[in-house]
């Protein structure tokens, strides 16, 4: 195995982006993602890229809109309140079918909230935080190695499907340091040359990038149908989750991101102690890994959802499992995090209850 | 938690090199191919305020990056002793900088290593290596990492910052290790 280096999550993400060919970053400072712009400000000039500390989050996302329209691999990052400000721009970029990567290292909300880690922006990310019928591919890494790989993949998916891709992390993923193998970038998809970008129309017909569709009268209906066809295709083609010890498991614990890795450790220990527990950790939050849940509802008896929020992914788990199993929830927002012990207590209590019920 | 996993906390005033100690331990873990997750308390931190860093080391895949109940603590000042003593797990290891703390630990179950780290650093000619003196004492007693890995970690870290400081830091490391010989652990007393 190659050498590993010790980096912070924010730095890992920025380095992966540079490796993947990101040459434009615009952002505005906010804790806990400040090392992202800091890293890009040093690194992008070394590779001929452009770093802009924008005057606001709104300006930053619109600069990314422009850079993407001009054909650059472009990125912005922020944390919860800042990402709320970007929503208008995200909707526009989705409408214009331009590729970009947006990172949200979530903090406590609502409002200005606090700077501790949280997962309260799931709905905003997965259900469309801006206006209109659009989707983002939403990625939820649980370790820095996974963050590194998924950031690179994010640029490929963004270019391939011509849409914004969101990396949904949290303040802990952003701030921890872990050893990471900085493997060279290898595209996971064959990406066609960008025949839609605005790079000077000398010798070819001019192109227009726009999101206002007034003419013809039903043009926007057709555009929406086109987008929906694209989203259905993505739902079939992009679908990642980690399934751990699910076979023979009576209880399936599910969590994403940092709670996902904490849940896995709790499940690992519970299995060592002979309890029939497994885990599904969604890695793509949209598209949601429905198939993994469709599979376990035939074998498991109960579900437990753990989130650093008051239950948002919970709704997608219920949809994916067709409400076929009793589903319990463990979670709080505002900076709370689950420990391996508290998840284990919940596992124990759920298995005991079901044990009594069967008798 | 499994025996292979070690959780620790390093705490003191901002400016005492808390983050640096966490960083050196984590680098030594990378050198020894162990899994490690390091974290620095972030927030409205300032020089002179309380700062702390946490490190989780394991031979297995690491679950939680959080350290609520550390196996070991390196405590460089009095406010950190007040703040973290109660959190240590039963029979945990506490390394105390006696130059900057006013009392011994209250808990009788703890394994304690008391080192006048700031005084030793003063004798070495640079107060700022008190953190490394304490680290030396910890490494000598904890069996977690090899002294040579810590030396390599220090060299890596300072070669980009200020190579002139490598020797001083390694001296401080060994001075701390030497002093820790006078602090037998409970297992050694038995």
What does this structure look like?
The complex is a heterodimer of chains A (359) and B (190). With 359 residues, chain A is an alpha/beta fold. Chain A has two domains: 5-198 and 210-237, Rossmann fold; 243-358, 3-Layer(aba) Sandwich (Rossmann fold). Chain A contains 13 helices and 14 strands. Chain A has helices at residues 9-19, 35-43, 57-69, 80-85, 87-95, 122-126, 144-161, 171-175, 219-237, 258-272, 290-296, 313-320, 340-358; strands spanning 5-8, 24-27, 50-53, 74-78, 100-106, 137-139, 164-170, 177-180, 241-244, 251-254, 277-282, 284-286, 302-307, 327-331. In chain A, strands 3-2-4-5-7-6-12 form a seven-stranded mixed sheet, with helices on both faces. A five-stranded mixed sheet of chain A has the order 9-11-10-13-14, sandwiched between helices. Chain A has a two-stranded antiparallel ribbon with strand order 1-8. In chain A, α10 (258-272) packs across α13. The longest helix of chain A has 19 residues, at 219-237. In chain A, 52% of the residues are buried. Chain B is α/β, with parallel strands linked by helices. Chain B has one domain (6-181): Pyruvate-ferredoxin oxidoreductase, PFOR, domain III (Pyruvate-ferredoxin Oxidoreductase, domain 3, 3-Layer(aba) Sandwich), CATH 3.40.920.10. Chain B has seven helices and six strands; from the N terminus they run βαβββαββααααα. Chain B has helices spanning 18-31, 78-84, 117-124, 130-142, 147-161, 166-180, 186-189, and strands at residues 6-13, 35-40, 50-58, 72-75, 93-97, 111-115. Chain B has a six-stranded mixed sheet with strand order 2-3-1-4-5-6, with helices on both faces. Chain B is globular. Chain B starts with 5 loop residues before the first strand and ends with a helix. The relative contact order of chain B is 0.16. The chains are: A alpha/beta (359), B alpha/beta (190).
């Amino acid at each position: 195995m190659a050498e590993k280096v010790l980096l912070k999550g924010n730095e890992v993400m920025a380095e992966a982006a540079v490796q993947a060919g990101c040459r434009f970053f615009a952002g505005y400072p906010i804790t806990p993602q400040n090392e992202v712009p800091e890293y890009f400000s040093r690194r992008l000039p070394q590779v001929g890229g452009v770093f802009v500390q924008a005057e606001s989050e709104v300006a930053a996302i619109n600069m990314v809109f422009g850079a993407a329209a001009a054909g650059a691999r472009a990125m912005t990052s922020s944390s919860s309140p800042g990402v709320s400000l970007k929503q208008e721009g995200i909707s526009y970029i989705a409408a214009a079918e331009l590729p970009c990567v947006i990172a949200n290292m979530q903090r406590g909300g609502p409002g200005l909230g606090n700077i501790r880690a949280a997962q309260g922006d799931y709905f905003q990310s997965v259900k469309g935080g801006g206006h209109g019928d659009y989707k983002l591919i939403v990625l939820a890494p649980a370790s820095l190695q996974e963050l590194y790989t998924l950031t690179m993949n994010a640029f490929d998916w963004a270019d391939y499907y011509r849409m914004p891709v969101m990396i949904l992390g949290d303040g802990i993923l952003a701030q921890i340091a872990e050893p990471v193998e900085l493997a060279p970038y290898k595209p996971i998809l064959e990406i066609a040359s960008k025949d839609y970008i605005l790079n000077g129309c000398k010798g070819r017909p001019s192109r227009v990038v726009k999101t206002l569709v007034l003419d013809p009268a039903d043009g926007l209906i057709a555009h929406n149908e086109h987008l929906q066809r694209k989203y259905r295709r993505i739902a079939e083609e992009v679908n990642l989750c980690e399934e751990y010890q699910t076979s023979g498991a009576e209880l399936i614990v599910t969590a994403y991101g940092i709670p996902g890795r904490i849940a896995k450790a709790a499940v690992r220990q519970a299995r060592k102690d002979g309890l029939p527990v497994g885990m599904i950790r969604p890695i793509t939050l949209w598209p949601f890994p429905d198939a993994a849940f469709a599979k376990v509802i035939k074998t498991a008896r109960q579900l437990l959802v753990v989130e650093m929020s008051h239950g948002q992914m919970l709704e997608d788990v219920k949809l994916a499992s067709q409400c076929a199993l009793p589903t319990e929830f463990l979670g709080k927002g505002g900076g709370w995090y689950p420990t391996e012990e508290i998840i284990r207590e919940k596992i124990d209590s759920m298995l005991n209850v079901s044990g009594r019920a069967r008798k | 938690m499994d025996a292979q996993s070690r959780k620790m906390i390093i705490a003191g005033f901002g400016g005492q090199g808390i983050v640096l100690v966490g960083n050196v331990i984590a680098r030594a873990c990378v050198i020894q191919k162990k899994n490690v997750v390091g974290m620095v308390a972030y927030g409205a931190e300032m020089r002179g305020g309380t700062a702390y860093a946490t490190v989780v080391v394991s031979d297995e895949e690491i679950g939680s990056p959080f350290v609520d109940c550390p196996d070991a603590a390196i405590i460089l000042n009095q406010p950190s002793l007040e703040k973290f003593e109660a959190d240590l797990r039963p029979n945990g290891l506490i390394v105390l900088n006696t130059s900057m703390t006013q009392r011994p630990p209250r808990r009788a179950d703890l394994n304690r290593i008391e080192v006048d780290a700031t005084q030793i650093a003063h004798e070495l000619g640079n107060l700022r290596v008190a953190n490394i003196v304490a680290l030396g004492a910890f490494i000598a007693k904890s069996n977690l990492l090899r002294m040579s890995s810590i030396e390599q970690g220090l060299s890596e870290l300072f070669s980009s910052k200020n190579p002139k400081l490598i020797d001083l830091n390694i001296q401080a490391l060994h001075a701390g290790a030497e002093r820790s010989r006078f602090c037998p652990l409970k297992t050694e007393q038995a």
